[in-house]
Target: Acireductone dioxygenase
Amino acid sequence: MTTLSIFDQSAPETPRVVTEDAGKIASLLAEHGVRFEQWSTRDLPADASSDDILEAYAGEIQALKDECGFQAADVISLNPDNPQKEAFRNKFLNEHVHSEDEVRFFVRGQGLFYLHFGDQIYAVLCQKNDLISVPDGTRHWFDMGPEPAFTCIRLFTNPEGWVAEFTGEDIASRLPRYERLAGAAG
Model:
């Protein structure tokens, strides 16, 4: 289930707020300019290609492009049998920012976004049906867990795709990882 856990940076062991209420999650995230919505998903075959997925959601993707100026969309999918899963996980685990909004729509599975606002960390466990748009310049990181299983549509204003600037802060290492938060939500 989609979950938002809010931590104080000075006490990262235990969240001070936990909610599974999608409306409350959207409202709390909107206070920081983060867009959170839940869309209906399509029934697609397990072996649907990236093109099949992009075509199935062509209307929603075009609406976001028209509204927000995105230039490109692609699909990222990872499964537990991927031999590079640990390298992919490590790539996204350190706090970073982007010069464009980071938009993800979960077609399948789940992943955990950590958003750093002042002295608070918002951990958003996104699931199938969730759209999240993290504004450019927001300090954040992503944890897909040790056995990643997700498919997301990504949108970009930069046609080169995902480009990160790492902050060098170690805050990500002090927060509970996916294993603890996703387990607590299940």
User: Anything to note?
Assistant: The helical segments are 22-30, 50-56, 58-68, 85-92, 171-174, 178-185.
